[in-house]
Design brief:
It is built from five helices and three strands; from the N terminus they run ααβααββα. The chain has 113 residues and is mainly alpha-helical. The chain has two domains: 66 residues, Winged helix-like DNA-binding domain superfamily/Winged helix DNA-binding domain (Arc Repressor Mutant, subunit A); 44 residues. Strand 2 and strand 3 form a beta hairpin. The longest helix has 43 residues. The radius of gyration is 22 Å and the shape is elongated.
């Protein structure tokens, strides 16, 4: 995965833009209103996201409509897959441990009755 992609995702304003775009495509003006930042700042952040392939511009007469580009997110998902498996394995082990503790406590309570 490109370092530029991670750098783009590290910025909280860009993540907020992606969160808004996750729902549906938006014009720049809508994004300005949603995030309450200047149009200049919004455009700069969108340019970074576009340059790394996280968003794309949809043709729409005179307005620029931005949408998430799912291809880049698929690449991110594929890169994260081994880490997700690691987390899932650890969470499964934790769940099993907690289940065993609950069963042991239930058994102990039954013995005390």
């Amino acid at each position: 995965m490109q370092e530029a992609t991670w750098s783009a995702l590290a910025d909280p304003t860009r993540r907020a833009l992606l969160e808004v775009l996750r729902v549906r495509p938006h014009a720049v003006g809508d994004l300005v209103d949603a995030l309450r930042i200047t149009q200049s700042a919004t455009s700069k952040h969108l340019r970074v996201l576009r340059d790394v392939g996280l968003v794309r511009v949809l043709p729409n007469r005179q307005r620029r409509i931005y949408a998430i580009d799912p291809a880049r997110f698929l690449e991110l998902d594929e890169w994260l897959a081994p880490y997700r498996a690691l987390w899932n394995d650890r969470l499964d082990a934790l769940g099993e441990q907690l289940d065993n503790e609950i069963l042991a406590k239930s058994d102990q309570e039954l013995e005390e009755q």
